[in-house]
Amino acid sequence: MKNMTGKSLLEALLCLALISIFSSVTIPAIGLSLENQRRQSATIQMLGVLKFARGQAVFGRQKVSICHGSVNCERTGDWSQQLLVFSDINGNGLLDGTDTVLRAESIGHEIYWKWAGLRSTQYLQFEPDGTTLAFNGTFTLCHEGKPFKQIVINIAGRMRTQPPSSPTSCS
To answer: How would DSSP label each residue in the chain?
Structure first.
C-alpha cells in the first residue's frame, strides 16, 4: 500500500506569505515600467510627427507647420490632445482655408508637451529646405507637472532627445 502524504497548514501559509512578499515587490515595479514605457512611446510619437513634417516640407517643397488643437491651432504653450501637421501656404502658422491637413495625431490624456521656442510662437514651421527659420526650441514631455524628456530642435531642423535640463518647468 502507498503512503499518502499531504501538505500541512503551516507549509500552505508559508507559501502564501512568500507569494505576497514577491507580489508586493514586483507590482510597483511593473507600474513604474509601464509609466516609463508610456513616456518612451510619447517621445517616439512626437519624433515621428516632427520627422514626418520635416519630410513633407522637403519632399513637397512647401512650408509645413505643426501646432496643437482639435480643429484649429490653439495658442497655448501646452501641447495636448491632438497635433496637427499641415501645409502652411501663407506661412502664418494658422490652419486657414488654403491650408491642407497632412496628419492629425492624438496624444495621451495624462501626458502633454510644453513648447518653448526662440520666438514666442505656439507653432513650429519647417521650410522647404528642412530648416526651421529661427523656430528652434525645445519640447518638454510633462506628466503630472513634472518634466521627463526633452526634444531639442535646432535651426537646421535636426532633432535630438535629452533628459530635462535643470531650469525646466511644466507649469
So the answer is: -PPP----HHHHHHHHHHHHHHHHHHHHHHHHHHHHHHHHHHHHHHHHHHHHHHHHHHHHTS-EEEEE-SSS----SEE-SEEEEEE-TT-SSS--TT-EEEEEEE--SSEEEEEEESSS-SSEEE-TTS--SS--EEEEEEETTEEEEEEEE-TTS-EEEEPPPTT----
